[in-house]
Write a structure and sequence with these properties.
The protein is 35% helix and 16% strand. It is built from twelve helices and twelve strands. It is of the alpha/beta class. The longest helix is centred in the first third of the chain and has 30 residues. The chain has a six-stranded parallel beta sheet with strand order 3-2-1-4-5-6.
Length: 370
């Protein structure tokens, strides 16, 4: 019988702080918009769009450092690579850890903005270094204030983004065409508008990270170290932001629904995050890793991963894992899973666990390399 462990009381305070931070950023947008007119770097800008075959250096700017939003950038990067196969790509992210998501994808250079008051000197140093380079294209698939300000400071012939309140940061802006509703795919309409082309508007290449054979082997070994037999191995992660977070009682109910629907005992492994101090149950195995890639490769080899709509869920999806996403406050059409072996649950009290388990059982043999 599962014995519940009390949840971390610090999470409620952190969720309130996150809400205040969103309010602060919204109020600062007017200030950022005024800055763009005075600090913009237009020295190398040109009004005409560069022909695709003349583009040799590309800077992609994405200042958000949440795990889910970082993973959602993958389809856009693959589209850029397809559209400009001979160009060198520099990716400007916010934090250094984000680089791991894009390893083995053929990106030449990574830079990091370090946008925070505590890292102000690092931010200034990064911007100064990048300003010395002249890019053919500076692309911002996001219309955030931070990304717009960073683009305005860069040296580039064309600065491209979607039309927004921050148009002064760019040489060319284009309307958002929602060919796809999903947050990871909605920015794929930007590049075709540059060249009046339908290229890749109605199709997308891949949302998956690039996993090496060695990483895949290590993930398999980490899984078999915890589960040596052939039992069904399901993992779950309780971390989530704000209203998406479930109570421990709700999590116990979810696990029990799967246990009642399965003909044999399930081996459960809880994925421990930095905000989770103790496991849900005292008699359950746990897995913790500080490396996103290690976590992704581990989850790839488990039989199923259950999580609310949060970063690790989308990381697991991008790693090719079988995922069960719990959507109580977000829309699966916008933030859903893109993999073939994935399921969306919107009613926590009536999960079709039998159907999900049958599908997971039939897909127990996972590929050994990406």
């Amino acid at each position: 019988m599962m014995q519940m462990v009390s949840e971390n009381p610090k999470l409620r305070i952190k969720n309130h702080l996150r809400k205040f931070d969103r309010y602060r950023k919204n109020k600062m947008s007017n200030i950022a918009n005024l800055m763009l007119s005075s600090v913009g770097n237009h020295r190398y800008s040109q009004s005409s769009l560069i022909a695709a075959d003349e583009v040799k250096e590309i800077l992609i700017v994405r200042s958000n450092d949440r795990v889910g939003n970082t993973v959602f950038l993958i389809p856009f990067i693959r589209q850029v690579q397809h559209h400009y196969p001979n160009a060198n790509i520099t990716l400007l992210l916010n934090k250094r850890w984000q680089q791991d998501v894009f390893a083995n994808m053929g990106i030449e250079t990574f830079e990091f903005a370090n946008l925070s008051f505590s890292s102000l000197s690092q931010c200034v140093k990064s911007v100064r270094s990048l300003r010395k380079r002249v890019f053919d294209l500076c692309l911002s698939p996001s219309v955030s204030a931070q990304s717009s300000v960073l683009c305005s400071l860069m040296s580039a012939r064309n600065k491209i983004s979607y039309t927004s309140r921050y148009d002064n940061a760019f040489t060319h802006t284009f309307p958002v065409h929602k060919v796809y509703s999903h947050a990871a795919l909605c920015n794929l309409s930007l590049l075709p508008q540059l060249h009046s082309s339908e290229l890749l508007v109605n199709s997308w290449n891949s949302h998956q990270i690039s996993i090496s054979e060695e990483e895949c082997r290590q993930g398999f070994e980490a899984k078999t170290a915890l589960v040596a037999d052939d039992s069904l191995c399901l993992t779950f992660f309780r971390g989530a932001r704000g209203d998406k977070k479930l109570t421990d009682v709700e999590w116990l109910n979810i696990l029990r629904q799967f246990e009642r629907a399965h003909h044999q005992p399930i081996t459960w492994i809880e994925i421990m995050g930095p905000e989770i101090e103790a496991p849900l149950c005292r008699n359950i195995q746990t897995y913790r890793s500080k490396s996103l890639r290690e976590l992704a490769c581990f989850l790839r080899h488990t039989d199923g991963f259950i999580s609310c709509d949060t970063g690790p869920l989308h990381l697991a999806d991008a790693a090719g894992a079988s995922c069960i996403g719990l959507y109580t406050h977000t829309d699966p059409a916008v933030y859903g899973l893109l993999g073939e072996r994935c399921f969306h649950v919107t009613d926590l009290d009536n999960i079709d666990a039998a159907t999900i388990l049958q599908a997971l059982e039939s897909a127990k043999v996972l590929p050994q390399a990406a």
